[in-house]
Amino acid sequence: MDSRVYVNTPMDLKTRLKSWCSDVRVKQALQHMGLFITLMAYTVVGGVVFRCLEHPAEIERISRLRSSLLHSRRHLAERIINNTLGLQEPLEYVYFELKEYEKVLEDAFAEGFQSTHHLDKYESEKWSFLTSVFFSSTVLTTIGYGNTVPVTTEGRAFCIVFALVGIPLTLTVIADMGRLFATSLSAFTERMPGWCRHATIMRRTSCYAVGSVAFLFVYLSAGAGFFVIWEEDWTFFEGFYFCFITMTTIGFGDLVPKKPKYMLLCTIYILIGLALTSTIIELVRRQYLQSWKQLQAMSGPLADTLRKMADSAPGIDVSAFQNDLKKVLTVVTMPKRLANQLDRYGKKQKQIRWEEAVESVIRDISNGTQQKQPSPPVVKIVIYESSV
């Protein structure tokens, strides 16, 4: 009986970890996660820098506007109380003072001051941590709502450098996630029942398009539902409208989330939604590429047939032209008819079978053309003899 005891040494764990990391699928997963984590870290760092540069200036601006409003309000009350006593027409004087106070309010609102309630305890949340991170994400995704912008020279300079470095990184991450989603969708389709796996190319293309668009609308609807819960004054349509305008990077800025505590979740939702949008674009690009390859494969037989028709144009036979046209249409519709048969073979065998089928049709066209060459005209000479 073996009484030895096996103990996992640190070297054994290190070897196992190394072999686990050397797996191809693990490497690919780590690469995808690394890109996404890098983008999130870059976004957070940008938000922190924007907050450090813009928050002090924002506090100073709010303090100045608050002092101006308090002074104007106190001045209005004093002027009305002290100068309306004994006047025969006090309403005109009050109206004049109110117009002066309205000018001060308009200037304050034009500079972004949103509320006159609780002026003594007003604190700006425009450049809070979560709002700053959300702003940096709108810069990287080029959405740009326009409700929050840097006003200091340092903040604007940093925004230029931040966008120059971050926008290519964001596009790389979105494209990587789009390819990942597209590959996952293709693999999922391959595991579907036989009617989907062995469907024709056109039907499969329609399945991809309809499925992708439907999933995108479900994602937008789910986001709209969350925004209805987060933003109490939003309707479902307004939430759906905001999600659509955001995912398409239009970014009008007429509707923007106002609850800072949900900004981080909103940022993650937008990044994933942009990846889903790029997935649909990637699927459409793949279908265009596949259709273009098939068009190139069919252009050869079609060009040969047209060339032969042009050579025989002086004595063209209508029935032969109809037969050749039918054979050309056979080549054009061949992908649809052979889709179920070719799906049973590998990629290399599919290409061989496809070339054999095309060559067979071309051979039939060539043989038919050679057999139906017009016979040379026969000239009959009749000689009459006369005894005259």
Amount of beta strand: under 5%
Structural Rg: 37 Å
Order of helices and strands: HHHHHHHHHHHH
Q: In DSSP terms, counting alpha (H) and pi (I) runs of 4 or more, how many helices?
A: 12
**Uncertain runs:** 118-122
Number of strands: 0
What share of the residues lie within helices? over 70%
CATH class (first level) name of the largest domain: Mainly Alpha
CATH architecture of the largest domain: Orthogonal Bundle
3D architecture notes:
The protein has two domains: 255 residues, Helix Hairpins, CATH 1.10.287; 58 residues. 74% of the residues lie in helices and 0% in strands. It has twelve helices and no strands. The longest helix is centred in the first third of the chain and has 60 residues.
Element layout with pairings:
Blueprint: H1 10-21, H2 24-83, H3 90-110, H4 129-140, H5 153-190, H6 194-197, H7 201-230, H8 236-247, H9 263-311, H10 318-332, H11 334-342, H12 347-371
GO molecular function, one term: potassium ion leak channel activity
Keywords: Ion channel, Ion transport, Membrane, Potassium, Potassium channel, Potassium transport, Transmembrane, Transmembrane helix, Transport
Family: Belongs to the two pore domain potassium channel (TC 1.A.1.8) family.
State the gist of this model:
The chain has 388 residues and is mostly helical. Helices cover 74% and strands 0% of the residues.
Keywords:
388 residues, mainly alpha, Helix Hairpins, 2 domains, 12 helices, elongated, membrane, potassium ion leak channel activity, transmembrane, Potassium channel domain-containing protein
